Amino acid sequence: MTIKIKLFGSLAESLQRREATLEYIDGMTVSSVWDEISDEAFPPDIMMAVNMAYSERDTRLQDGDEVAYFPPVTGG
User: Fold this and answer.
1) CA nearest 67: which of 56, 52, 58?
2) Mean pLDDT per segment of 10 residues, for the chain of length 76 residues?
3) Which of 66, 69, 68, 51 is nearest to 2 (CA)?
4) Against a cut of 0.90, is the pTM above it?
């Protein structure tokens, strides 16, 4: 029973990986997963998705979910 994690852009570079897995624990949220994979504070401006649908940091997870973290998008 696991949670799959995907990291994109500068987040993947700073954590030196693009994917990870964690053992699912009842009550996990998008924010608590971040705390498990990073020593850095939860970035206030990143986008998050659960199973390819945008989510909030307090979204509760289920076994088998996929969580993705995206850095802020800029353009011009």
Assistant:
1) 52
2) 95 95 97 95 93 97 98 74
3) 66
4) yes
